[in-house]
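Allow me, if you will, to draw on your knowledge of protein folds for a short while. I have a record of one protein: its chain in single-letter code and its fold written as discrete structure tokens. Kindly check, if you would, that the fold set down in the tokens agrees with what the sequence suggests. Thank you for your consideration; the sequence and its tokens are set out here:
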Amino acid sequence: MQLGMIGLGRMGANMTTRLLRGGHQVVVYDRSGDAVATAAAGGAAGAQSLGDLVSKLAAPRTVWIMVPSGKATDDTVHELLALLASGDTIIDGGNSNFRDSQARCALAKKSGVDFIDAGTSGGIWGLANGYCLMVGGDTAAVNRVTPIFVTLAPPDGFAHVGPSGAGHFSKMVHNGIEYGMLAAYGEGFEILEKSEFSYDLHQLSKLWLQGSVVRSWLLELAERAFRADPKLSSIRGYVEDSGEGRWTVQAAIDENVPAPVITASLFARFYSRQDESFSAKVIAALRNEFGGHAVKRESTNGAPAPAPSSTT
């Protein structure tokens, strides 16, 4: 298929590469001309603006948005709706709030444009392993662009989970669960690190991968992080949250569902921004490993170093 990709950050660039390898034709746009040039060197067609991108797509057009949630996505959707025609499709693969996705779907329908919310998980490893895709939207629209999802996902890694909003709601809860799992690993390794025993945390994390009931991909990433930096001495225990944890807690409140683990794990991230803790270092390291999320580094003199910049 032919599609447009808007946003060539950590996820969008790798998704473009996977789509190209799968035989799709991809037209790309990003505010960074260098990012567009890099994608074009890999076989994509570069565009200088959203209007240029749309003009290079044949009807019915499909455009995938991979930009930050909130205003950036809103602005992109509104500009696209002024350029697209009835029968075209917008796919939002970012971490948008499901209520925003429902509102955007309703707005797009007024122009005859289909809007699909695709909760996307896989981080920087998705290029090689594929992306887990939780897709919400009208059945006919989803069916039309299914070849795109099949290429991006590993076997059995894509599902149409419900109507508009269902994709981003399931991804929101997915990330809420992730908060709890990260917190448990962080706390456990801090207990080990503070104990009277001089544990080799790399050795122990590698051992737990051999048949243990707590083995997981996150534990594999912990082993990788400890192998590279046994004491995580180069990482500050400062953990951001990108919104989904807060939304999951709010949904639990709205639905009268007790969610103490996810709620506590969200608040633990707030603690990380006040006092240094080894638990927070573990979580920061794991988020960097699976998603390429920026970490705050320690400088050589022991003072906090500025966080690296990141692109969309």
User: Anything to note?
Assistant: The longest helix spans residues 166-194. The chain has 14 helices and eight strands. The longest strand covers residues 114-121. Confidence is low (pLDDT under 50) at residues 306-312.
